[in-house]
UniProtKB/TrEMBL annotation:
<protein>
    <recommendedName>
        <fullName>Cytochrome c oxidase assembly protein CtaG</fullName>
    </recommendedName>
</protein>
<keyword id="KW-0186">Copper</keyword>
<dbReference type="GO" id="GO:0008535">
    <property type="term" value="P:respiratory chain complex IV assembly"/>
</dbReference>
<comment type="similarity">
    <text>Belongs to the COX11/CtaG family.</text>
</comment>
<dbReference type="GO" id="GO:0005886">
    <property type="term" value="C:plasma membrane"/>
</dbReference>
<keyword id="KW-0997">Cell inner membrane</keyword>
<keyword id="KW-1003">Cell membrane</keyword>
<keyword id="KW-0812">Transmembrane</keyword>
<dbReference type="InterPro" id="IPR023471">
    <property type="entry name" value="CtaG/Cox11_dom_sf"/>
</dbReference>
<feature type="topological domain" description="Periplasmic">
    <location>
        <begin position="28"/>
        <end position="195"/>
    </location>
</feature>
<keyword id="KW-0472">Membrane</keyword>
<feature type="topological domain" description="Cytoplasmic">
    <location>
        <begin position="1"/>
        <end position="8"/>
    </location>
</feature>
<dbReference type="InterPro" id="IPR007533">
    <property type="entry name" value="Cyt_c_oxidase_assmbl_CtaG"/>
</dbReference>
<comment type="function">
    <text>Exerts its effect at some terminal stage of cytochrome c oxidase synthesis, probably by being involved in the insertion of the copper B into subunit I.</text>
</comment>
<keyword id="KW-0735">Signal-anchor</keyword>
<dbReference type="GO" id="GO:0005507">
    <property type="term" value="F:copper ion binding"/>
</dbReference>
<keyword id="KW-1133">Transmembrane helix</keyword>
Length: 195
Protein backbone atom coordinates (compact mmCIF):
# COMPACT_ATOMS: atom_id res chain seq x y z
CA UNK A 1 0.00 0.00 0.00
CA UNK A 2 1.56 3.29 -1.12
CA UNK A 3 1.50 6.34 1.13
CA UNK A 4 -0.04 9.53 -0.16
CA UNK A 5 1.96 12.79 0.02
CA UNK A 6 0.71 13.97 3.47
CA UNK A 7 1.31 10.52 4.99
CA UNK A 8 4.77 10.34 3.46
CA UNK A 9 5.65 13.80 4.82
CA UNK A 10 4.37 12.87 8.28
CA UNK A 11 6.42 9.64 8.26
CA UNK A 12 9.54 11.58 7.24
CA UNK A 13 8.98 14.13 10.01
CA UNK A 14 8.58 11.37 12.60
CA UNK A 15 11.81 9.82 11.30
CA UNK A 16 13.64 13.13 11.61
CA UNK A 17 12.37 13.62 15.18
CA UNK A 18 13.48 10.09 16.17
CA UNK A 19 16.95 10.58 14.63
CA UNK A 20 17.38 14.00 16.27
CA UNK A 21 16.31 12.59 19.64
CA UNK A 22 18.82 9.73 19.33
CA UNK A 23 21.61 12.17 18.43
CA UNK A 24 20.74 14.41 21.36
CA UNK A 25 20.74 11.43 23.74
CA UNK A 26 24.13 10.20 22.43
CA UNK A 27 25.73 13.64 22.42
CA UNK A 28 26.09 13.91 26.21
CA UNK A 29 28.25 10.79 26.73
CA UNK A 30 30.15 11.51 23.51
CA UNK A 31 30.90 15.08 24.59
CA UNK A 32 31.98 13.86 28.04
CA UNK A 33 34.32 11.30 26.43
CA UNK A 34 35.69 13.93 24.02
CA UNK A 35 36.42 16.39 26.85
CA UNK A 36 38.16 13.76 28.97
CA UNK A 37 40.36 12.62 26.07
CA UNK A 38 41.30 16.09 24.81
CA UNK A 39 41.07 18.22 27.96
CA UNK A 40 38.60 20.42 26.07
CA UNK A 41 36.58 22.72 28.30
CA UNK A 42 39.01 22.33 31.18
CA UNK A 43 38.33 18.63 31.75
CA UNK A 44 41.26 17.01 33.55
CA UNK A 45 42.94 13.68 32.91
CA UNK A 46 43.10 10.73 35.28
CA UNK A 47 46.39 8.96 36.00
CA UNK A 48 47.14 5.79 37.95
CA UNK A 49 50.54 7.01 39.15
CA UNK A 50 52.67 10.15 39.30
CA UNK A 51 54.88 11.42 36.52
CA UNK A 52 58.22 9.76 35.79
CA UNK A 53 59.72 13.16 34.94
CA UNK A 54 59.94 16.22 37.20
CA UNK A 55 61.13 19.48 35.69
CA UNK A 56 62.86 22.36 37.47
CA UNK A 57 60.23 24.73 36.08
CA UNK A 58 57.40 25.48 38.53
CA UNK A 59 53.74 26.30 38.04
CA UNK A 60 51.16 27.81 40.40
CA UNK A 61 47.99 25.86 41.10
CA UNK A 62 45.04 27.75 42.56
CA UNK A 63 42.07 26.07 44.19
CA UNK A 64 38.47 27.23 44.04
CA UNK A 65 35.34 25.80 45.65
CA UNK A 66 31.68 26.64 45.15
CA UNK A 67 28.26 25.10 45.72
CA UNK A 68 25.24 24.64 43.54
CA UNK A 69 22.24 26.74 44.55
CA UNK A 70 20.40 24.95 47.33
CA UNK A 71 23.39 22.85 48.46
CA UNK A 72 23.45 23.40 52.26
CA UNK A 73 27.06 22.33 52.86
CA UNK A 74 29.91 24.70 53.51
CA UNK A 75 32.70 23.91 51.05
CA UNK A 76 36.11 25.52 50.47
CA UNK A 77 39.75 24.73 49.70
CA UNK A 78 42.00 24.44 52.76
CA UNK A 79 44.86 26.16 50.90
CA UNK A 80 44.04 28.62 48.10
CA UNK A 81 47.30 28.28 46.14
CA UNK A 82 50.49 26.24 45.91
CA UNK A 83 53.53 26.27 43.67
CA UNK A 84 54.89 22.93 42.51
CA UNK A 85 57.42 21.69 39.99
CA UNK A 86 55.94 20.50 36.71
CA UNK A 87 55.66 16.71 36.98
CA UNK A 88 55.81 16.74 40.80
CA UNK A 89 52.91 15.11 42.66
CA UNK A 90 50.84 17.63 44.60
CA UNK A 91 48.37 17.03 47.41
CA UNK A 92 45.62 19.50 48.25
CA UNK A 93 42.61 19.34 50.56
CA UNK A 94 39.10 20.73 50.40
CA UNK A 95 36.93 21.05 53.50
CA UNK A 96 33.22 20.28 53.60
CA UNK A 97 30.84 20.77 56.51
CA UNK A 98 27.22 19.69 56.85
CA UNK A 99 25.52 22.21 59.20
CA UNK A 100 22.10 20.58 58.89
CA UNK A 101 20.34 17.98 61.06
CA UNK A 102 20.15 15.37 58.27
CA UNK A 103 22.65 13.33 56.24
CA UNK A 104 23.34 14.90 52.84
CA UNK A 105 24.97 13.33 49.79
CA UNK A 106 26.96 15.42 47.38
CA UNK A 107 28.87 15.03 44.13
CA UNK A 108 31.51 17.43 42.85
CA UNK A 109 31.89 18.55 39.26
CA UNK A 110 35.21 20.10 38.29
CA UNK A 111 37.18 21.89 35.64
CA UNK A 112 40.54 23.51 35.06
CA UNK A 113 41.30 26.96 33.66
CA UNK A 114 42.83 28.02 31.41
CA UNK A 115 41.29 25.36 29.18
CA UNK A 116 44.66 24.79 27.47
CA UNK A 117 45.90 23.25 30.73
CA UNK A 118 43.08 20.71 31.04
CA UNK A 119 44.79 18.04 28.95
CA UNK A 120 47.94 18.31 31.11
CA UNK A 121 46.38 18.37 34.58
CA UNK A 122 46.32 14.76 35.79
CA UNK A 123 44.44 13.58 38.89
CA UNK A 124 45.74 10.45 40.59
CA UNK A 125 43.10 10.36 43.34
CA UNK A 126 40.21 12.69 44.07
CA UNK A 127 37.14 12.99 46.27
CA UNK A 128 35.32 14.02 43.09
CA UNK A 129 35.55 10.49 41.66
CA UNK A 130 32.73 9.31 43.93
CA UNK A 131 29.73 10.65 45.79
CA UNK A 132 30.25 11.89 49.34
CA UNK A 133 27.88 11.60 52.30
CA UNK A 134 28.20 13.85 55.33
CA UNK A 135 26.29 13.17 58.52
CA UNK A 136 24.65 16.04 60.47
CA UNK A 137 27.32 18.36 61.86
CA UNK A 138 30.14 16.41 60.20
CA UNK A 139 33.23 18.25 58.92
CA UNK A 140 35.75 16.46 56.68
CA UNK A 141 38.86 17.25 54.70
CA UNK A 142 38.86 15.64 51.27
CA UNK A 143 42.10 15.13 49.32
CA UNK A 144 43.00 15.50 45.67
CA UNK A 145 46.34 14.16 44.41
CA UNK A 146 47.55 15.50 41.08
CA UNK A 147 50.43 16.51 38.84
CA UNK A 148 50.95 18.70 35.81
CA UNK A 149 52.20 16.66 32.85
CA UNK A 150 55.67 17.82 31.71
CA UNK A 151 54.44 17.75 28.12
CA UNK A 152 52.74 21.08 28.85
CA UNK A 153 56.05 22.88 28.22
CA UNK A 154 56.12 21.62 24.61
CA UNK A 155 52.48 22.35 23.81
CA UNK A 156 51.71 25.25 21.47
CA UNK A 157 49.29 26.87 23.96
CA UNK A 158 50.22 25.11 27.20
CA UNK A 159 53.78 26.43 27.31
CA UNK A 160 52.44 29.91 28.08
CA UNK A 161 50.44 28.75 31.13
CA UNK A 162 51.98 29.86 34.43
CA UNK A 163 48.94 29.49 36.71
CA UNK A 164 46.26 26.77 36.69
CA UNK A 165 43.00 27.04 38.62
CA UNK A 166 41.28 23.83 39.74
CA UNK A 167 37.61 24.50 40.46
CA UNK A 168 35.03 22.26 42.12
CA UNK A 169 31.30 22.78 42.45
CA UNK A 170 29.41 20.54 44.88
CA UNK A 171 25.76 19.79 44.27
CA UNK A 172 23.30 17.75 46.32
CA UNK A 173 22.29 14.31 45.08
CA UNK A 174 19.93 11.64 46.39
CA UNK A 175 21.21 9.67 49.37
CA UNK A 176 22.44 6.16 48.53
CA UNK A 177 20.15 3.29 49.48
CA UNK A 178 20.20 2.62 53.20
CA UNK A 179 20.91 6.19 54.32
CA UNK A 180 17.28 7.27 54.23
CA UNK A 181 16.46 4.94 57.14
CA UNK A 182 19.41 5.93 59.36
CA UNK A 183 18.77 7.71 62.60
CA UNK A 184 19.76 11.37 62.58
CA UNK A 185 23.26 11.77 63.98
CA UNK A 186 24.28 8.14 63.53
CA UNK A 187 27.83 7.94 62.15
CA UNK A 188 28.32 5.19 59.59
CA UNK A 189 31.94 5.94 58.76
CA UNK A 190 30.96 6.64 55.14
CA UNK A 191 33.53 9.39 54.74
CA UNK A 192 36.41 7.33 56.07
CA UNK A 193 36.90 5.77 52.65
CA UNK A 194 37.24 9.05 50.74
CA UNK A 195 40.11 9.21 48.28
Amino acid sequence: MALNAPQKTAAQLVGVVVVMGALAWASVPFYDWFCRVTGFGGTTGVATAGSDEILEKTIKVRFDGSKDRGMPWEFKPVVREMEIKIGETGLAFYEAYNPTDRPIAGQASYNVTPYAAGAFFEKIACFCFEEQVLQPGERVQMPVTFFVDPEIVDDRDGKYVHTITLSYTFYEIDLPEGYATLETGENTGAVSNMN
